[in-house]
Amino acid sequence: MKLGTTDMPMPVFLAPMAGVTDAPFRRLCREEGAGGAVTEMVSAKALYYHNRGTERLLRRPMDQGILGLQLFGSDPEILAEMAAAREAEYDFIDLNMGCPMPKIVGNGDGSALLEKPELAYEIINTMKQALTKPLTVKIRLGVNREKMNGREIALLAEKAGAAAVFVHGRTRAQLYSGRADWEEIRRIQEALSIPVIGNGDIDSAQSALRLREESGCAGLMVGRAARGNPWIFREIKAAWLGEAIPPRPSREEMAARMEEHIRWEIEEKGEAVGCRELRSHLAWYTAGMTGGAALRRQASSLSTRAEAEAFLQAFLEA
């Protein structure tokens, strides 16, 4: 798959997830086989006003490989200006028109733009004019089952100059519940000449292959199934290439990766912040494990490197 002029030999992306897909976790997934990643969603308006917390989301010293900056907003000029100001640091810019959360939608951003096709077109066209790097757009299937206008929006994105469209196979009204509609992703893919990357309900190498086969998508995007499970990318990569799917990691291999994750988070953010942000990650690593509940309680109060090391020892002994 080509993303503009960028060749994507492994078009399987780590999805942007707030509070999850920071630089250390993106590095972990990239090393396990993800072909690309997208930053956590960043407010163009907050960038415009030099918000310090937002600037932190843009740090990428640990990132390797293809990375996109995902921006959200609804002001065409601010989005274009902020995209152009930051594009040199990234391989592509991604416009979020898919976030369904009420706080974002209430401000007229994210998937609120699905109801404003003229504004959506203006935003994409204005951003495209300002950029030299590829511009992609993340959308949903529509507002709800009665207004499945994802194809209309995707066609507008293509017309406005988008290089590719990421499609989450749910409507805005669904949030993250219910099943993703891969058939509708296929209809969007068939309507476009630019690459479509499918997203939704990929939780294994097998489901990744099914989505590719059923939708005909040029690429895939994996979200919640990667939490505590970066190994899903090496499994999908093997399946994509027609190779044998590698076995699930041993407890020792998991602990070795977790040790790296802990070290990178602390290097990137300092002990206090790094350990606080590790709490959810370490809890996700215990999913389905015997003794997992006790480990998750231990992770929930993590505050120091020593406590993180004690967690790792308990993880190995569980």
In short:
The protein is of the alpha/beta class. The chain is built from 14 helices and eleven strands.
Describe this structure in words.
- The chain has helices at 23-31, 44-48, 52-57, 76-86, 102-106, 117-130, 150-160, 182-191, 205-215, 232-240, 251-269, 271-285, 292-299, 305-317; strands spanning 2-3, 6-7, 12-14, 36-38, 42-43, 66-72, 92-96, 135-140, 164-168, 196-199, 219-222.
- The chain is an alpha/beta fold and 318 residues long.
- The chain folds into 2 domains: 2-240, Aldolase class I (TIM Barrel, Alpha-Beta Barrel), CATH 3.20.20; 251-317, Non-ribosomal Peptide Synthetase Peptidyl Carrier Protein, Chain A, CATH 1.10.1200.80.
- A hairpin with a 2-residue loop joins strand 1 (2-3) and strand 2.
- The N and C termini lie far apart (43 Å).
- The mean pLDDT is 94.
Which short descriptors sum up this protein?
Non-ribosomal Peptide Synthetase Peptidyl Carrier Protein, Chain A, 8-stranded parallel β-barrel, TIM Barrel, 2 domains, globular, alpha/beta, about 325 residues, 14 helices
**Whole-number mean pLDDT:** 94
Helix count equals 14
The tally of domains stands at 2
Main β sheet profile: 8 strands, parallel, barrel
- The structural class is alpha/beta
Helix content: 40-55%
CATH class of the largest domain: Alpha Beta
Outline the secondary-structure elements.
Elements (H helix, E strand, L loop, with lengths): L1 E2 L2 E2 L4 E3 L8 H9 L4 E3 L3 E2 H5 L3 H6 L8 E7 L3 H11 L5 E5 L5 H5 L10 H14 L4 E6 L9 H11 L3 E5 L13 H10 L4 E4 L5 H11 L3 E4 L9 H9 L10 H19 L1 H15 L6 H8 L5 H13 L1
Parallel strand pairs: 3-4, 3-11, 4-6, 5-6, 6-7, 7-8, 8-9, 9-10, 10-11
Antiparallel strand pairs: 1-2
Helix pairs in contact: 1-11, 4-6, 6-7, 9-10, 11-12, 11-14, 12-13
